[in-house]
From TrEMBL:
InterPro entries (UniProt xref): ADH-like_C, ADH-like_N, ER, GroES-like_sf, NAD(P)-bd_dom_sf, Zinc_ADH-like
Listed GO MF terms: oxidoreductase activity
Any Pfam family hit: ADH_N
SUPFAM superfamilies for the chain: GroES-like, NAD(P)-binding Rossmann-fold domains
Gene3D superfamilies: Medium-chain alcohol dehydrogenases, catalytic domain, NAD(P)-binding Rossmann-like Domain
UniProt name for this protein: Zn-dependent oxidoreductase
Length: 335
């Protein structure tokens, strides 16, 4: 089967480390299931792997990709929950399992015709979601959901700042927070992305670093060093920053004086539980929310998609289509 594989790592030229090539179809372990991937999407996690950040090079080569929607071997349309973990080891929360792994970290990912995952990681795909829309949810939308509703516990009327409008998590956070009745502020250096944020329900969208008219209750932070000072300055006393990424760097000045004097709270957030993903689907059905899709590409053009991410051209998600099985014999041989 065709797959996009990380073969090595380079902080300066990550796309040179990605190879689209034929690999053996996966075998199915006991209590695992196989999914024929109809649609998958690009995530920053894939670029971090190629750059050598947070990924053990001993696990290479590795099929990349964390998101997937497709069909199981019984023909059921499914969405893949992407965290391979034991909820019991995390005290009921699989994101707290010390041994957890996102697809493509220790298990081959979704940039391929087939992916295998534990049976519990399959969630029925609702018929009101397309495969493309469903494929946008497992990483970015679940991350935004947990940040807003589990970690920050936002309520109607709360003022929420989302840094870096245009990214997958940020676009999801804007839509989800607005649908929950929050007053959403968004930032971006791009006028086009600020306009997009307003169309998604943001109350105001301002250039990155611009002072807000009001201090906010919650900041959704995935940018890191470039926006950290602005995040703390924009936060009211007693407010909360929830951080789930640091695309511009992980070591900003901490500004501890501001944090303790104004009793600000800083919460980390990683991924989401399976039950949170199911709750996200219920919210989307009730509100009519749908993901923002920037473009769709065949797997053979995955390098072009990643280059667009590196160039900052993406607003929302890039959907990738792996090729369908070549014939029934390939499908039987992979079982």
């Amino acid at each position: 089967m065709l797959a996009a594989v990380a073969t090595k790592q380079s902080p300066d030229d990550p796309l040179s480390c990605l190879s689209v090539r034929q690999v053996p179809a996966p075998t199915i372990a006991p209590d695992w299931a196989r999914v024929r991937v109809v649609a998958t999407t690009l995530n920053m996690h894939d670029l971090w792997t190629l750059r050598g950040v947070g990924h053990d090079p001993r696990n290479l080569p590795m099929v990349l990709g964390c998101d997937a929607a497709g069909y199981d071997d019984d023909g059921n349309p499914v969405i893949v929950y992407p965290v391979i973990a034991n909820p019991d080891a995390g005290g009921g929360d699989e994101t707290l399992d010390p041994g957890r792994a996102l697809l493509s970290e220790r298990h081959n990912g979704t940039f391929a015709t087939y992916v295998t995952v534990p049976q519990r990681n399959l969630i029925p795909k609702p018929d009101w979601l397309t495969f493309e829309e469903a494929a946008c949810l497992p990483v970015c939308w679940t991350t935004a959901y947990r940040m807003l509703f589990t970690q920050a516990n936002i309520r109607p009327g709360d003022r929420v700042l989302v840094q870096g409008a245009g990214g997958g998590v940020a676009s999801a956070a804007i839509k989800l927070a607005a649908a929950a009745g929050a007053v959403v502020y968004a930032t971006s250096s791009s006028p086009g992305k600020r306009a997009a944020a307003l169309s998604w329900g943001a109350y105001k969208a301002v250039p990155t670093g611009e002072r807000l008219s009001d201090r906010v209750d919650v900041v959704i932070e995935t940018v890191g060093e470039a926006t950290w000072a602005h995040s703390l300055k924009s936060l009211r006393p007693g407010g909360t920053v929830v951080i789930a990424g640091a695309t511009s760097g992980v070591n900003p000045p901490a500004d501890l004086g501001r944090v303790f004097y104004q009793q600000q709270r800083i919460l980390g957030s990683t991924g989401a539980t399976r039950s949170e993903m199911v709750a996200l689907l219920r919210m989307m059905q009730a509100t009519g929310l749908r993901p923002v899709i920037d473009r769709t590409l065949p797997l053979s053009d995955v390098h072009k998609g990643f280059q667009s991410m590196l160039d900052g051209e993406i607003t929302g998600k890039v959907v990738i289509y792996p090729p369908a099985p070549e014939d029934a014999e390939e499908s039987r041989g992979a079982a």
